[in-house]
Design a protein that fits this description.
By secondary structure, this protein is an alpha/beta fold. The protein contains 5 helices and 6 strands; from the N terminus they run βββαααβαβαβ. It has one domain: Nucleotidyltransferase, domain 5. One of its GO terms (molecular function) is nucleic acid binding.
């Protein structure tokens, strides 16, 4: 499998968000991996500290899915302990994605999470599909 991009592309950034639930939830982690034109990769992620209203209503709120928690492995306790405010996540991420092409394996979901009021990043995610190659050139 050979993938080619324009010579002047610079870097591509794969973006992925995890959410508290696929339905009625909110973004809880924003991860990225830069692929530079020289073949190097740089990655990172931030846990997104929930809005105070979410924390106060967790016991009653339906926006947290235990099924989603099982899949991504991020607990409420981990968010409270290691998460940072959504606005700080936006600032860090915007600095990381300057002059890059954003791509996502699930752009419909990821763009939905990125455009939530607490986490607004005005970039578009370009859809891509991954396949398992039989050989690499």
């Amino acid at each position: 499998m050979k993938i080619s991009f324009p010579d002047n592309l610079g870097k591509i950034t794969f973006v992925d968000l995890e959410a508290s639930s696929l339905y009625g939830g909110w973004p809880i982690e924003l991860g990225f991996a830069h692929l530079f034109d020289d073949g190097t990769i740089q990655s990172g992620a931030w846990l997104i500290y929930p809005d105070q209203d979410w924390v106060e209503d967790w016991d009653y709120w339906t926006g947290w899915s235990l099924e989603s928690e099982t899949i991504h492995g991020i607990s409420k306790e981990l968010l409270l302990d290691q998460g940072i405010a959504a606005q700080k996540v936006v600032e860090h991420f915007e600095a990381e994605i300057a002059e890059t092409l954003l791509v996502s394996d699930a752009p419909a979901y990821d763009q939905g999470w990125i455009r939530q009021p607490a986490l607004i990043i005005n970039r578009f995610c370009i859809p891509f599909r991954l396949s398992r190659p039989t050989s690499l050139e």
